[in-house]
Write a structure and sequence with these properties.
alpha+beta; D-amino Acid Aminotransferase, Chain A, domain 1; 2 domains; 6-stranded antiparallel sheet; 15 strands; binds 4'-deoxy-4'-aminopyridoxal-5'-phosphate
């Protein structure tokens, strides 16, 4: 049997990885099969973008990492300053100015049992590379999505506010999207309200009002979501955080998704129903422009 990954998914052999305090070649950047991050999805992470050599909203990402870690009672072995330095060291080691950073903290190596008290110390690694979540042309043309049957985790199970290594809930939804021939799926919460997509937050626009589900709907408090809300306010566009139903998606004038990897991408079809006549809407286009200016330091 051949367990080699297909060639296109093999990591660049020249990558340098930050692993537990050292920058090492990717071939040496390995974690144990006894790591609870692998055995149980026990850990937390951040996805961060760098633009022009500056990690966008790094402090906010590291704050969220700390909060995720607190929620699962994982003591981070590095301070915020050390994490920031390690992030920039990894970018530098790979000569990356514009790219994507994945900062992961696992519970670490432990006994074959769930208990975090029987693990040694957390494992920290940072990958600096590139990511293209969706084909480039969809940023111009807009993207079709579905709303799926898999609901987002109940807030009293694994809270969606924790950016944990346990993404199986979202992966099940992603599989549903891929089966339907689209790239992304909207997930409802246990009450039937819109929560978020598998790796992005969702916004709709109706009658000139930008709307997005509130945190209480059970979603990751996206750093990009926050940035876009600021941009909406800056333009003086009416904005509401409100519970949205499937119907609100179907009658939206415009829709878009936000995320670090996704950035801001227009949605032009939901469950087969065209949004804004199948073209990215005018407010969406403005916000995409504003977001580009913001991340490139022109705002
Ligand atoms: N929701 C989920 C489930 C995510 O995984 C992400 C990030 N990939 C987001 C929303 C967007 O968050 P951010 O803007 O902080 O990347």
């Amino acid at each position: 049997m051949n367990f080699q990954p297909p060639k296109q998914y093999a990591p660049d052999p020249n990558l340098k990885i930050f692993l537990n305090g050292r920058i090492v070649p990717v071939a040496e950047a390995t974690v144990s099969v006894f790591d609870h991050g692998l055995l149980y999805g026990d850990g937390v992470f951040e996805g961060i973008r760098s633009y022009g050599g500056k990690a966008f909203r790094l402090d906010e990402h590291l704050k969220r990492l700390e909060q995720s870690a607190r929620a699962i009672r994982l003591e981070l072995p590095m301070t915020r300053e050390e994490c920031a330095k390690a992030t920039y060291d990894t970018l530098k080691a790979n000569n990356i100015t514009d790219g994507y950073i994945r900062l992961v903290v696992t519970r670490g190596v432990g006994y074959l049992g769930l208990s975090p008290s029987r693990t040694e110390c957390p494992c920290v690694f940072i990958i600096a590379s590139q990511i293209e979540l969706y084909p480039k042309e969809l940023y111009e043309k807009g993207m079709a999505i579905i709303s799926c049957s898999v609901i987002r985790n109940h807030p009293n199970a694994v809270s969606p506010r924790i950016k944990s290594l346990n993404y199986l809930n979202n992966i099940l939804a992603k599989i549903e999207a891929l089966d339907a021939g689209v790239h992304e799926a909207v997930m409802y919460n246990h009450q039937g309200f819109v929560a978020e997509c598998t790796g992005d937050n969702i916004f709709v626009i109706r009658d000139g009002v930008v709307q997005t589900p509130p945190t209480a709907a059970g979603l990751l408090e996206g750093i990009t979501r926050d940035a876009v809300i600021e941009l909406v306010n800056k333009r003086g566009i009416p904005f509401r955080e409100m519970n949205l139903t499937r119907h609100d998606l179907y009658v939206a004038d415009e829709a878009f998704l936000t995320g670090t990897a996704a950035e801001v991408i227009p949605v032009t079809k939901i469950d087969g129903r065209p949004v804004s006549a199948g073209q990215p809407g005018p407010i969406t286009r403005q916000l995409i422009g504003d977001f580009k200016n913001l991340v490139n330091g022109r705002m």
